[in-house]
Amino acid sequence: MIVAVLVAAAAAGVLLMSRIGHSDPAAATPQTSTDPAHFDLPALIGTGRVRLSDFRGRPVVVNFFASWCTACRGEAPGFRAVRAAAGRAVTFVGVNTQETGDGAAFAREIGISDWPLARDVGGASSSGLLEAIGGAGLPITAFYDAAGRLRQVLVGALSEDTLRAQLRSLYGIHL
SUPFAM superfamilies attached here (predicted)? Predict the structure, then answer.
């Protein structure tokens, strides 16, 4: 009986130590949040953070992408053109999600590396924020108003004309 108790206690100790030693890096960072109303994610490049609260006062367009996503590559030229035309009236943010390759290299390749870029965390496959907004598959674009409220989520690749129409409809921005 005593041997069984000691074996059970040792097994519990090993299990506890393995969980402590192999914790999720996102969980180890208390400020990380995939709450759509208050997201706070690690930067894709470097050690900074990308926080929704940092963009208050301007509408925010959040585009979710991954290096394997051919539709993400296809919509990138339209997003770059609209971002250039919008100037400081709208903030564009990229969130690398469901990544299996090199999201930072992909962002540089498609020309969005000058946007704030975040790395999605948690969820089923490093897709916590994507899942929290109800997204599945890529690309997905989320539109936040200047107060940080999620206004709309569109699934699928957006053309430049569709993106411009969304900015006009949601924010009254005519480009």
Answer: Thioredoxin-like
CATH architecture of the domain formed by 29-171: 3-Layer(aba) Sandwich (3.40)
Name the residue type at position 58.
R
Question: Beta strand pairing status for 117-119 and 140-144?
Answer: unpaired
The CA distance from 58 to 61, in Å, is 10
At 9 the three-state DSSP class reads: helix
DSSP 81: H
What are the residue ranges spanned by the domains of the chain?
A: 29-171
Tell me: the pLDDT tens digits for 22-48? 334 444 355 789 999 999 999 999 999
Ranges of the chain whose pLDDT falls below 70: 1-30
- Angstrom distances, CA of residue 163 to CA of 8, 44, 137: 59, 24, 19
